[in-house]
Model the fold of this input.
Amino acid sequence: MKTKHWIVFITLGIIWSSSFLWIKIGVQEVGPMALVAFRMLFGALTATAIAFYQRIPFTRDPKDWGIFAIFGPASLAIPIFLISWGEQTIDSAVASILNATVPLFTLLIAHFWLHDDKITFQKTLGLLIGFGGVLVLMSEDLLASEHGSVIGQFAVILASLFYAGSAVGIRKYSQHINNTMRGVGFLITATVFMWVIGPIAEKPFEIPALPITWVAALWLGVLGSGFAMIMLYYLIHEVGPTRATLVTYLFPVGGVILGVIFLDEHLSWQLLAGTVLIIASLAVVNYKKKNL
Done:
């Protein structure tokens, strides 16, 4: 990846590192569908504001909106709901581990769906090293805590499959669409989907009352969806879905580092070893041998 890609990649990892924490906070008061509905709404408003600021014309092509209608819910509303629902019964640390399977699923799906993102020994080795790093990084929390419902864990794994499949599909079918417009389109259709389905499927469909819940929804919507999805679609277009979804390996790193800095949690050997392995995996996957 080029320097500009690394900047976007790391920024995206920083933004998303705290997502599991904010989801855990949000579902303490409101149901997962209500939280996701507000998150999608704030994300769509943010992405639309960015598009207006950049003076990007809205596509009127019915085919484009057909793509948005499919991949908006599939890449955003459905997997985010599954994670939010799962985190009602499992720890956020466990959720971040299970979500780190996204690159592995993406590698497999992309091999059969794309012509320019095939399985190679280098990619496979890098992804396995990274996943090993995630397990080492979070091993202390995994051994020390209750992990909750198996169904909750399955929901997060299913979310990872949705993320992986939609990342590949977005690369295949929407390369002709402007990156910001992709963010706008997918977030708008995801918002419509959640506000139609949510009040019907979740009763009561609650409006947040606590300030901290509104902070969670705004953080997840404005940064975690509005800005983040535009950055993710940019990476998918530029470097391919397998490399782009490697950002999920940064989630546990960021979460643990934030805990050390702001919550006075101890600096463990697991943090150091896991971080080294994850950095090594990024290096392996992105290494290109120079021709002499």
In short: The chain has a mean pLDDT of 84.
